[in-house]
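Write out this protein's structure.
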Amino acid sequence: MTSPFVRSLDSQLIGLLTCMSERCTDHQFYLLVKSITQGIEVVNLWKGRHPDVVSSLILTTTLLKCSSRENAEKTLWFAVPQIITALLALCKKTALDEHLGFKITLLSLEALAVLIQQGEGMLSNPHHVTLAFDALLCIPLDQLKLDEYAGVFQAIHEVLFSIIQSQPKVLFNAAPTFLKCFNRLVLSVVHKGRQKAAGEKGMTMESKVILECARLVERMYTHIAAKPEEFAMFSAFMVAEYINELQKVTLNADVKKLLAAGVYHLLDLVTENDLRFLNASLHLGVREVFKELYGDYVRYHKSKRQGEEEYTA
């Protein structure tokens, strides 16, 4: 079964599992959850039961999307540590074993995102959420084929977005680790978004994929900038990391435009002290790149934002 086909059945599967959870006894629902969670254990990969793992991952994601009665939710709550530990193990195993394919990695990340979206009511222990960062950091993005890269990049972005939207306590205490995961996406886009060599023309499939990934990075920058309490103290370092990578490559103009638009939102959080720090700490060549970026920020973003604020007032 292909991923689009499975997604087309999503609403029917949710309806079926919701109906089952409402009509079965507490013990029957417990056995259902136990069967599904056992199916995502990494031991099944060692036994060569890959289709069972794929099916169980799909069912896990679907079950987490269901609206369940109170006792059923309690059963799921008890199963959360086992589920998130199993998802982490699957991500690590498939990262080390290329022949297992990216499908299990992708399905594991999708399940992880849906689990995190349940919020602090379902994931009451912040440690269980921080395990998600370990899963994201072990995935070798730059070793993936183009079609795999697009799917996994989007799935990692979705996990990070789920954390920023649904797990405020984790975000407040683990902002540096969150940014470490996000910075891998930024660096990957910068490296893959190089300008084409002379003689290459047109928008290739790779260009379209990297452009879409750059849009996701820009969007995440805006979400980060909207959380100043958690991220303001790191804004200067994030800008410095981006500038250091930017000066190493010549970016495709469209990719550069999207990334710059995202970094402008970070610069909204940068203080005068941060600016002095950046100008003092950046090397000469990098400092020139920063001055150009900051000049464009003042010209195209800051003045527009100030104008909008004055109009609103």
